[in-house]
User: What shape does this take?
Amino acid sequence: IHRGLLTSGELARMVEDGLVTGLTSNPTIFDRAISGSSEYDEALDHITAKGGLSPYEGFLEIAVDDIRAATEILRPVYERTNSGDGYVSLEVPPGLAADAEATVAEAARLFERVGCPNLMVKVPGTPEGMIATRRLIAAGVNINVTLLFSIEQYEAAAEAHIAGLEDRLAAGNDVSSVAGVASFFVSRVDTAVDALLSGDSHLRGRIAVANARAAYGRYQ
Assistant: This one.
């Protein structure tokens, strides 16, 4: 995601042509977008003139505008698929990965601030992130659990999602509009495992896909 993609009409065309049905973001993606172009100069000048904002809050001024614009472009996909697709993801700060309470508070704040039903908040798949995921799903916040590398992690994310739905249902709230995604990483597994294998091993470059297949089997 970057502002030029939104303002040029390129994203809208890709969505209309059926080429894109969702978008993600993370701090690294935004860093490259902001520092690698002049698209954000005006917004940065406005933030500087405003004053009194922490670097993170200044970042959110920019990120929320882009995310909200993207959710609006993808809203027809969300409505056409009965909330099955058309989501845009915004990540909680990585520094909160070991703090369940802070993750819940910040994810809820981001969800409310963007104010679009097709927003997903990305939560890391740490033990604390799983606790936060359950509570956030119960509160009606769409969650994208990210940084999942193992089958055990995936299972924990799925259980947290299901438990959150059960908690929400037990409280008498509707569960039909609460969405969740488990983002299972692939290439990084090969990067880690290949370094442990001999150069002529027939397993090089194959472990990550096998791992993903096993996780998908658990999903089914």
Notes: Residues 135 and 150 are 22 Å apart (CA to CA).
